Every structure is written in C-alpha cells, then in structure tokens.
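Chains adopt folds. We examine one example:
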Amino acid sequence: MTDQQRNFLGIPVQGDITHGATRKEQKPIEELQPILQAVLDDPTIVEFGWRQYTPYFNDGEPCTFSVYGLWVRTEDDQDVVDDDDDYELELDGTHRSLGDEPYRKVPTNENGSGWKWEKGPYEGPDKARYDRCHALWHALESGAFDNVLLDTFGDHARVTVRRDGIEVEFYQHD
C-alpha cells in the first residue's frame, strides 16, 4: 500500500509510518472455550487460575500485558491453601500431582562433544490430564487471547476458576 492510498476514517494519511511491535494475532474466545472446558470437566481438578498484568518495568523493553503462571489445584493438592503457595502448583515445572515431562541433556553427535536439551518422557499419574492442563497453559500464555482476557478480567488481576464461578482479585506485583 502506498502512502497515497492510506487513510484514517476517510482522511488521507501521508508520510513515513513507523510500525510498533507486532502483537500476536488474537483468537476469538470460542477457541479457548473447549480447552478451558476440558480442564473444568476433570473431576479431580478443584480449581485453577493465573495472574494477568502489565509489568510496571521491563528492563527497558516495552511493558505489555500478559498472562503468567497458570496453576492447577487437584484433589491431591488440598494441603496447599495459601494463595502465596500457588507457585507450587504452577505448570512451568514439575507439578506436585500432575507430574512433568522433564528436560534432559542428550548428545547431538557420536563423540559426545555436542548436546541439546529435549523433553523427556512423561513422569506422573495421568498423562491425559497433564496434557489437558498444558494445552490450557499454552493457550493462555501464548498471547493469542490477551485482548479478551484483559477485557473480561482487567489488568493486575489474579483469576481463580472453579466449576461454580470465577473470582477476580487485584494482583499486586513488582
């Protein structure tokens, strides 16, 4: 598109346009619904949630809204009751009751001089449950639903999802 063809609300725009950071293409909420519902339908999952906010400072990088730290509480995690302990239930490492696919160091050549990290085999009680929760984690933290999550739950929010409702609390972060 040439500069002469650009317009804003029917008003011609001329000049050099410097485009900002590219954002993830946004998906409609209807694409998130079955992923979220699969986790809600699991009878062993009591609740799950995440934090969403725009950082106040980001080491000189632009501060952009994101979803962070999906956590899942199963029936086996009932002893974790303090909100500050939800970090123990996050999916970015070995989850207490869901398990993990831990990374392992593997050689990339026969003489062992090169190596790489790759995901190992699943270790835990229920791979299908683990996969459903990780699908939700990837969907939420992909950025593809940021607009709808921001519009629905707001900025600086701690969101907790249960079968009987969703609770939103102000989230204080650094």
About this structure: The mean pLDDT is 87. The chain is about 20% helix and 25% strand.
